[in-house]
Amino acid sequence: MTKADLVEEVTKLGDLTRRDSETIVETIFDSVIGALKSGDKIEIRGFGSFRIRQRKPRIGRNPKTGTKVEVPAKKVPYFKPSKELRDLVNPGGNTQATSAGGTAA
Q1: Does any domain span residue 104?
Q2: Within a domain: residue 103?
Q3: What distance in Å separates the CA atoms of residue 98 and residue 105, rounded to the nearest whole number?
């Protein structure tokens, strides 16, 4: 699904113009990006949470030449889906996830 597809879905849901739907979608994305930039965590119940993870500096390898390259520390966005979303995507129940430390409820 693209951003344009998402705008179309929002337009279909209510009496909104395409411009209003674009504004809504853009506002949501801008809010998520702004919160992550400032280091905040975003939690959307029933969907998941967004947060920033810090990656340590490391020594990488250029796959073309094989030479070692220093990769600096960086922050990366991370999304963790909620249990409800995981259950909707995997409707048969995922026994592997529950046996790895989660609770089966």
Answers
A1: no
A2: no
A3: 9
Q: Per-residue DSSP letters for 17-53?
A: -HHHHHHHHHHHHHHHHHHHHTT--EEETTTEEEEEE
Q: Which residue segment(s) compose the domain that 18 sits in?
A: 3-92
- β strands within 1-105, DSSP E: 42-44, 48-55, 58-61, 68-71, 74-81
Q: pTM of this prediction?
A: 0.70
What is d(CA 53, CA 37) in angstroms, rounded to the nearest whole number?
A: 12
pLDDT along the chain (105 residues), means of 10: 93 90 95 94 95 96 95 96 94 59 47
Number of domains the chain is built from: 1
Residue 15 lies inside a defined structural domain of this protein: yes
Q: Which residues pair with 78 in a beta bridge?
A: 51
AA letter at 36: L
Position 100 in a domain: no
